[in-house]
Amino acid sequence: MASGFITLQNGKAWSPRWTGYDIVLKTIMNNLTDNEKEFELKSWIESVLPNIENGDEECGYCFIRNADGENVLREIDTRFIKNDYLVIFWNTLEKIVAEQKKSGNDFSFLFFDLFAEYKTCLLEKNVEAENLDEGKDIKYKPIGIYY
């Protein structure tokens, strides 16, 4: 069952199981450098993934952050991410897809599927997201990833 969601600019969501969602984001995170914007994106991705070693509890569709007891849903809406970071995110995914085509692994299909959704999204009209003030409480806004 889908339990991780990445909403693209066309308003459609890519939605794998939570394990696939975590694998894709961790792989993107691990392919980012410590240069300024990449490091900020890397830090942000790390903040939206569970850290089991740090005491976070896994619930499948979400995880409970040990530090504050918050339930963190596995949900990213790319329509709220600043363009500089989106370019880094998608370019990194494209690089991973190229590597997966050469070497491949059991999870290659996840990267191929998300990248295909992204490419389709580029051909479609963008759909405006709801106002952040009306419903979504983005707790990771301070580092500047979100508008």
Characterise this structure.
The chain is of the alpha+beta class and 147 residues long. The protein is 41% helix and 11% strand. It is built from 4 helices and 6 strands, in the order ββααββββαα. The protein has helices spanning 18-30, 36-47, 83-102, 108-123; strands spanning 5-7, 13-14, 57-58, 62-64, 71-73, 75-77. The strands form 2 sheets. The chain has a 3-stranded mixed beta sheet with strand order 2-1-6. A 3-stranded antiparallel beta sheet has the order 3-4-5, with no helix packed on it. A hairpin with a 3-residue loop joins strand 3 (57-58) and strand 4. The longest helix is centred in the middle third of the chain and has 20 residues, at 83-102. The radius of gyration is 15 Å and the shape is globular.
Reconstruct the topology from this structure.
Layout: E1 5-7, E2 13-14, H1 18-30, H2 36-47, E3 57-58, E4 62-64, E5 71-73, E6 75-77, H3 83-102, H4 108-123
Helix pairs in contact: 1-2, 3-4
